[in-house]
Amino acid sequence: MRHRIFGLMCTLVWLTLGLPAAAAGEPVAQVLAQIRHVFRSHEVPPYVSYTIQRDQMTDDGLPDLLWSYTYRVWFRSADRAALGRKRFRGRSEDLEFMRPAFNEPRDPGPPTADLFEPAPVRPTFGGQPFDRPPAIPEIGAVTSYGELDYRVSQMKIEGMLLHLWLFPLRDAERNRLRELWVDSGTLELQKVIATDRLYSLGGRVYMMMDTITMGRVEGRPVVTDIHGRANFADERWEAGFDVDYHFRDIAFPSELPLWYFEPPSYGKHIAEAPQ
């Protein structure tokens, strides 16, 4: 009886704070586990098409034309292969094979990326091989409610959102989440702060902090905007680097031609290439 009364009191306290019913009376770690579970419960689409726009500024505050560009991308989830075409002044340029990914020396993506996935142990430099696809975890099979990667250091209600601060329990560079905002009723992600890496032409790697804004397309959570900031020194206000990515025109085709993901075939299919 005492245990039941204690549990009821905990539930009432949590509900008074405005927490979602799914989280009432449960340890904070389980709230995080449920947020991850809700995010990963959405079916991964086999294909994603989208436009990614990269905006970068010079030290003088002017648009950096060399590193500001727009690509149209057709992505295959099974092996993370993609066909990309740079857009310049309304015209599509050459076909390019790519593997969009966070924490890699390339553009982030796709907008349906698993934000709970750890960063790679080692970055993939040089070419992006099309014949050695990386292993893909089966997201839909994740059912564990244990928490081995993060400790929730603080949690509070902010309007209609639940705000969590996360501390990595191990592998801080790989377990990249630092803050989450979720809908307090559905536990769907709304905004994320996560670490990332900036790979410079000189070979140095700087840690970045990404602010990721989420949206919905056909009921699925998608990344719509990323603002990244990397400081070139440990001091917070030292010179640094800012970059913005915008994901637009997101769609989920039911199928795409196989040759999109076979670079040796690009030449003979140029006449039928997507724009």
Summary, kept brief:
With 275 residues, the protein is mainly beta. It contains 2 helices and 11 strands.
How are the elements arranged and paired?
Blueprint: H1 2-16, H2 28-40, E1 47-56, E2 69-76, E3 81-88, E4 91-98, E5 150-158, E6 161-168, E7 177-183, E8 189-199, E9 205-217, E10 220-231, E11 240-251
Antiparallel strand pairs: 1-2, 1-11, 2-3, 3-4, 5-6, 6-7, 7-8, 8-9, 9-10, 10-11
What is the makeup of the main sheet? 11 strands, antiparallel
Number of helix segments? Answer: 2
**Helix-strand sequence:** HHEEEEEEEEEEE
Q: Which class of secondary structure composition applies to the elements?
A: mainly beta
Morphology: globular
Low-pLDDT runs of 5+ residues are 1-18, 21-25, 132-145
Strand order of the largest sheet: 4-3-2-1-11-10-9-8-7-6-5
How confident overall, as mean pLDDT?
82
Distance between the termini: 67 Å
Number of strands: 11
DSSP strand content = 35-45%
Report Rg. 21 Å
Features:
single chain, mainly beta, disordered N terminus, 275 residues
Can you walk through the features of this model?
The chain is mainly beta. It is 10% helix and 39% strand. The chain is built from two helices and eleven strands, in the order ααβββββββββββ. An eleven-stranded antiparallel beta sheet has the order 4-3-2-1-11-10-9-8-7-6-5, covered by helices on one side. A hairpin with a 2-residue loop joins strand 3 and strand 4 (91-98). The protein is globular. The model is unreliable at 1-18, 21-25 and 132-145 (pLDDT under 50).
